[in-house]
Specification:
Length: about 375
């Protein structure tokens, strides 16, 4: 059977993974699979990491009775926690924990809906407790587990400290990812808020996640932990993006703070200042350029860029004469004349199309990417 849990935390603290760890410690069961599933990044009631958790278990006797007790004693008291963000104007909602139990796998279409748009319904569970968190909990159970990566999460006992030397070594292990940003020379796996997480180490296999975690927690500069578990995740899957878009540039507007609004023929895309090279590429575009882009569509209809690629570029040049010479202007709006045979035509310029099949995708820096974003669109953008 599946157990799912979501929405037990707020900006005041708490952590759904830690609460779930406590739940599993209370249950008499065999854990077959443990999941952490990121959902639609623009969901109105999303929590800090926008992740739900689930476990496939073989239960022993009285599991439902145990869950009733666990809900009442451990989870229900977490309801109603709320704090305003000092860095984001987005409206915050009180925590509304939700827990669900399914005997069989829910329809995977429910996951695809929950990772790509806002939803407010629930596939009928065997048993359910709580409020809005039931939606994310059910989506975590409905994920098919394909295109998966792994995250090993360790919870701190008191202070949060990760050994810097061990972190650098772990970041260089083939098979870990997004552990450290070499550009800023800082770690990416330890949160900064009051939650109980010490670190979340990301890897492509369970074995790599396990060995890298042991290296970190045994290092002298890492503080004491309370426990750790490895979760199967949909991180770096790109599941939140349904397609690659294409368009032709009409106008570029650079806003205060570095944000770039690119007006295309049939769309508007935005590269925010923190997207780094994506922003710089957007600034360099000119009218007539053709681009491919990926990102999420916001409530105002614009797309917030997560990847950008210029595929075609138009530039203006003087026409060629039939004799082979490049013509010269006769003055503004007066046409062109061949310097050799003196032939005159009405055109001042003609547009030349340049196509670059090797053009690379540009993505935000590591510390500005979503959990769900693919690591390298140049390698696997065809999977979208």
């Amino acid at each position: 059977m599946w157990i799912g849990l979501d929405d037990t935390d707020s900006l005041l603290g708490g952590c759904t993974t830690y609460t779930f760890h406590q739940v599993l410690c209370e249950l008499d069961c065999e854990i077959l699979e443990l999941r952490l599933v990121r959902l639609y990044p623009f969901a109105q009631r999303r929590t800090r990491g926008n992740a739900a958790v689930a476990a496939k278990i073989i239960p022993k006797e009285q599991t439902i009775d145990d869950l009733d007790r666990i809900w009442t004693e451990m989870i229900e008291p977490l309801k109603g926690k709320i704090a305003e963000s000092e860095h984001d104007n987005r409206k915050q909602y009180p925590s509304e924990p939700g827990m669900v139990v399914y005997q069989n796998d829910p329809d995977p279409e429910y996951y695809w809906t929950a990772v790509r748009r806002q939803i407010d319904y629930l596939p009928t569970p065997v048993r359910a407790w709580g409020g809005w968190g039931m939606i994310g909990a059910a989506a975590a159970c409905a994920w098919k587990g394909t295109n998966a990566t792994y995250e090993s999460i360790a919870w701190r006992k008191n202070m949060r400290a990760v050994d810097e030397k061990a972190l650098i070594e772990v970041d260089h292990i083939d098979g870990t990812f997004l552990c450290r940003d070499p550009r800023l020379k800082q770690g990416l796996l330890a949160p900064r808020g009051p939650c109980p997480v010490m670190f979340g180490l990301r890897a492509f296999t369970v074995d790599i996640a396990e060995s890298a975690t042991k290296k970190l927690i045994s290092a002298p500069g890492t503080a004491e932990i309370e426990g750790w578990r490895i979760f199967k995740t949909n991180q770096a899957s790109g599941d939140h993006l349904a397609m690659i878009h294409k368009g032709k540039v009409e106008e570029i507007l650079v806003k205060k703070g570095g944000h770039v609004i690119v007006q295309l023929e049939h769309d508007t895309v935005i590269a925010f200042g923190e997207t780094g090279d994506v922003k710089l590429l957007a600034q360099s575009l000119v009218s007539g350029d053709c681009v491919e882009y990926v990102g999420l569509r916001a409530s105002d209809g614009s797309i917030h860029l997560e990847g950008l690629r210029k595929t075609h570029s138009y530039h203006q040049e003087r026409p060629l004469c039939s004799c082979g010479k490049r013509m010269k202007s006769m003055g503004k709006n007066q046409g062109s004349r061949c310097p050799s045979c003196r032939t005159i035509i009405k055109k001042d310029y003609e547009s030349k199309l340049e196509y670059d099949p090797e053009a690379k995708w540009t993505m935000p820096p590591l510390n500005a990417r979503r959990h769900l974003s693919k690591l390298d669109l140049n390698q696997n953008s065809h999977d979208l």
